[in-house]
Amino acid sequence: MIRIRRVRPDRQPSFEELLAPSGDRALPDDGWARVSMILQAASAPAHPQEHADERLFVATFRQEVAQARAARRRVPVGVRRFAGAFGGLATTCAALATAAYASALPPHLQSAAHRLIGAPAPQVTSSVEASAPAPTDTPRPSLRPVPSTPPTVARGLPTVSAQGLCAAWTAVEHSDGPTPAGLRTALSRLAGDDSPDQIRAYCTGILGNGEAAGNGSGHPGSGNEQSGGRGNEDHATTSPENSTESDGKGNGSHEEHSGNPHGSEGDHGNGASHGNGPPEELPPGPNS
Amino acid sequence: MTLDAMTHPSFSALLSAARAGDADAFAVLWREIHPPLLRYLQVLARDAAEDIASETWLQVIRGLDRFRGDEAGFRGWVFTVARSKVVDWRRYEGRRPAQPYAEPPVVTLLGDVADDVIDYLGTQAALKLIAQLPPDQAEIVALRVIAGLDVDDVARIVGKRSGTVRVACHRGLRRLHDLISVCNTELERDVSPGEGREFAPSQERSSTVTP
Question: How far apart are CA B26 and CA A64, in angstroms?
Fold first, then answer.
């Protein structure tokens, strides 16, 4: 049988009494004296082993201090903020300039960019066009630029139509003079071949359609001033935009200008026959 | 544990020098505070004490510029940091699956327990005895005895009221007294009168304190 004798002291000494040196304390019993000794052992002066890592911690301290100083020395806060603000501003300006040159800004900003940095002027909005009723017989000139390159014209010759070129080619052939190099180059591009025969065949087709539908004469420009020939004059001298618009102007068939070169020219001629001119002035065509 | 070394030169001068990067000043601070800090951590975290002490000092070094206060405040701040590290360590230990490890060595106390603690095992055995108290009492006794903090500082560190700290310390000391009494009683029971107190270390008739 195990008997455990637990000695309960009548009075528990205070914390200060337990930590006091042995000569100054009056502890109630041996148990508290042992507690006092344990507490004094726990709070004993440092042993050498407990200072063994001093060098390691001091080295860590030096390293941390050096890192903190290096971080402080890098860039001042003000400079960093200024650089950030400047970078943001530069990015914004670049984006605005890009948008301005792409004509993607609102009109008032676009006009300001046009004045300041020479960006394209703002496009006139087609509010009139949008609010106008559906197009009638007489088409209105659009304020908005229209895609100007007709499919019949090569990219290098945006201002000359095929019919005008063929008219010039025919005139040169009739005059037996030297053929301008640019004219031949342009027509060879349209005809798909460099040979004069091919160009001649091409132009015959072009002008033949126009004559068949238009004036019926073999000479371009003759008898065209009153009706379809007016278109020839315009084609030879005006820009593609104008040629497209002028075709509609002359014959009232603006929407019909599409498709292949021959078709468009033929449409032009056909349209001319149904144009605004008096019917009695129309030259006799093969269809009539 | 006194702060005499921290007062010659004054603590404020030492702290200023340490903030300015003076490693010698930091070494003085470290020599004063590290031993009690390590003992406090040995009571709370046993084998992880040295790792936690390293983390504590790292945070103290990094936060040295931000500290404002006197030497008692500095000591309390260091122990507060250490306590937060212990809390983190306990959380980590709680999440980590248990891994088999070697049994810690059994501390053998021969004869009178207190005498053995003082004579043979000294401070470490005393710390292990204190660590046998309930955790809150062990922490408060360690902070009061080892760190040398007063009741208010301890209350601030552990987040309790001063009265609660006083009661916990009182109970802890009484429990320590009872623990020693029980050990002595067992010894008295086991030791035959003829043998006296002559014990060989290999004898089984000894009380054991497991860390």
Answer: 12
User: What is the phi/psi pair of residue A26, to 5°?
Assistant: -130, 90
Direct distance between the N- and C-terminal alpha carbons of chain A, in angstroms, rounded to an integer: 142
Place of tokens 């001319």: A272
With contacts defined as CB-CB under 8 Å, which chain B residues touch A58?
Answer: 23, 26-27, 30
**Alpha helix (H) ranges present in A132-254?**
162-175, 181-191, 196-213, 228-237, 240-251
* Percent of chain A clearing pLDDT 70 (strictly above): 52
Cβ contacts of A7 within 8 Å, gap of 6 or more? A29, A31, B181
Which position has the token pair 């019949």? A152
Each residue's pLDDT tens digit, A133-169: 544 455 555 555 555 444 444 444 444 578 888 888 8
Write out the residues of chain A at the interface with chain B, using a CB-CB cutoff of 8 A: 2-7, 9, 12, 15, 18-19, 31-35, 37-39, 41-47, 50-51, 53-54, 57-58, 60-62, 64-65, 68-69
Mean pLDDT, rounded, of chain A: 66
Other CB atoms within 10 Å distance of the CB of residue A245: 20
Angle in degrees, 0-180, between the axes of helices B23-45 and A54-74, rounded to the nearest 10: 120
What's the number of CA atoms in the CB half-sphere (13 Å) around residue B81?
23
Query: How far, CA to CA in Å, does B131 sit from each of B43, B78, B124, B172?
Result: 5, 20, 10, 10
One-letter amino acid identity for A143? Answer: L
Residue A179 is given by DSSP the state: P
Q: Which residues of chain A have pLDDT under 70?
A: 1-10, 22-28, 75, 124-160, 209-288
Give me the amino acid identity at A35: V
The confidence score (pLDDT) of residue B83 equals 94
